């Protein structure tokens, strides 16, 4: 097990199997030293952990936990390409989408769930640029979707 996975385990998290794509795309793609993940939903064992919108059906705290599931799925997609998360030299960018009620403005707090977990897992290499975007609806009525870009070393 990698040092990154050890830190995840110490924090109470387990890396899942790579989520099966729901349409015509791959979970992650490598171009040179960069790996781009597809948007990852909060899937557990192939099922959405929750549905609905933040500010209506889902609390900020629950949204943060769902963002953690999304980023764990993204990390699994990265590991599938490089074999070991210790090869990640830097988390470059995180983009989080939050299905939001019209009067919900806490997208950054929701995506903090993903950002903070990346910091726990990768330490200083987990610092990243980020966007937290409100959306009217996400696939399968998911509350959150997260994609990441990482730089890897060989």
TrEMBL record:
Spans traversing the lipid bilayer: none
Domain Endoribonuclease L-PSP/chorismate mutase-like: 5-143
Coiled coil (residue ranges): none
InterPro entries per UniProt: Endoribo_LPSP/chorism_mut-like, RutC-like_sf
Pfam families: YjgF_endoribonc (PF14588)
Gene3D superfamilies membership: RutC-like
Entry protein name: RidA family protein
Organism whose genome encodes this protein: Auritidibacter ignavus
